[in-house]
Amino acid sequence: MTKIFLLLCFSGFNFIHAQPEQRASGSSGAGRYAARPAQASHKSQVTGHKSEADIGGLAQNGAVEVLSLEESVKLALQNSLPVLSAEQEILIAKQRLKEAHFLYLPQITISATLSRLNLEYPMVLPVEFGGRFLENGTNENFYTLRGYVFQPLYAGGRNKSTLKMAKAALNSAEVSHEMVKRDVILNAKKTFYAFLFQKKNYEMLAGWHQKALNISEKINNKNRWESVESVAILSRFDFKKSVGAKNIENSKLDFLAALNKETDSAVDIAGEFETAGSGIDIRQSLVSAMEMRPEQKSEMYKAQMDDIAVNMAIIRRYPNIYLGLNYDIVAEDISGFSNSSLRSNNWVASIAVHLPLSYDIWSDIVRKKALQRQGDIKRSEVQDRIRFEIFKSHSDVQFWEKTSAKIKESFERANIEYESALKNESLSTASLRALVSVFELNKQYVDSVYNLSVAKVTLEWAQGTPVAQ
């Protein structure tokens, strides 16, 4: 035992002395790995250049997922929480429709009761236990089997109205689902084009900034005023690039929010703006919107539900007629159920008429009719809103189609003159001023093309184009 104890002490002594070396080695390794980001940071500061992936927050470990417009819309629909919630509303409406169908079927109840008793005087069992009258001469055990069938013969149209209401509610839920999906698609397309616009805008800024730097370096014999102007022009370009980089970051976050993805997702987009002419007549757009817009369909189903609600308020005064069948088998022992001489069989067939009397019937009818008129006003409001949305969207598309074509022509003509002047004229500060003017035309063209794409997407939404298309 003494040898074992000494051996353990010697091993512990070696372990304790080895710890500082291991900690020192671990510290050295940590310092070695920690130095790598510092070197990379120093390199980026020296070069002063950021890639487009770095600007948009896309430079991450792993592959970058590049999405097209169609893929973005599909992903937005798959991840949208409002769409998932609307799908559950459809499921709930379908179950309510099934319940409304079951109202036409008879209600069947089967029950079995075992009672152990000691009575000094007669009593009645509670309703939950069959509601049977028991005499004081009954044996200790009392067994009952009961079958009960209840069928409404006439309910004043309540069951039929309930079924119609359930069908209208299902149609309304499906239309609401369509509305939510269209809103998600519109938001996804707008954020996609906004992200694409900021990327294109930054690429354009970087290109013109580099051209300005090249021209500024080649200008000879600049006086002080020209030097000040050159520095100011280059500084404005540099500031616009910084703002453009921030706009890319913000537009990417908006795009990820529309897709319901994490903020650090490695996602990029690829696509072009819509520049082709629409060729859509405004009358055709109005007809399409009035027929296809889910808001219009939703108001139609709400009108049906209002009519049904008024009818249900009226038929509250109508009588109800019910048919009931009751069959009992009673025995004082379980074995008595198999012996006809030891059991008693009882049956009852009943017809009941219920005539409801209420003081607030007319007030309920007046209230339902007021809600119906309120729904009519709301439908007129929706129609007017759809009409104005069509006119505005159509006007925006026409304006930006003409404007983008005009600016494109002006930019191309100015750019040709500018390139010709670079080849044939000597460089001066006027060259930088001309570059800024051509750059402004280029930026106006990119802005107009972006606005045209957004206007077309909005017009497509206003027309009520189905989601499948």
Percent strand: 5-15%
What would you call the quaternary organization?
Answer: single chain
Any guess at the CATH architecture of the largest domain? Up-down Bundle
Gap from first CA to last CA: 87 Å
H and E string: HHEHHEEEEHHEHHEEHH
CATH topology of the largest domain: Outer membrane efflux proteins (OEP)
Helix content: 55-70%
The tally of domains stands at 2
CATH class of the largest domain: Mainly Alpha
- CATH homologous superfamily of the largest domain, by name? Outer membrane efflux proteins (OEP)
Number of separate helices: 10
Largest sheet, in brief, is: 4 strands, antiparallel
Which features characterize this protein?
single chain, 469 residues, Outer membrane efflux proteins (OEP), 2 domains, 4-stranded antiparallel β-sheet, elongated
Outline:
Helices cover 66% and strands 12% of the residues. The protein has 469 residues and is an alpha+beta fold.
Tell me what the structure shows.
The structure is a single chain. Strands 2-5-7-8 form a four-stranded antiparallel beta sheet, with no helix packed on it. It has a two-stranded parallel ribbon with strand order 1-6. The chain has 469 residues and is an alpha+beta fold. Helix 5 (158-218) packs antiparallel against helix 8, helix 6 (224-259) runs parallel beside helix 10 (429-463) and helix 9 (361-424) runs antiparallel to helix 10 (429-463). The protein has helices at 2-47, 52-55, 69-79, 81-102, 158-218, 224-259, 282-292, 294-314, 361-424, 429-463, and strands at residues 65-67, 107-116, 123-124, 133-134, 141-154, 267-269, 320-331, 343-354. A hairpin with an 8-residue loop joins strand 3 and strand 4. It contains ten helices and eight strands. It folds into two domains: 106-154 and 319-355, Outer membrane efflux proteins (OEP); 158-318 and 367-469, Up-down Bundle (Outer membrane efflux proteins (OEP)).
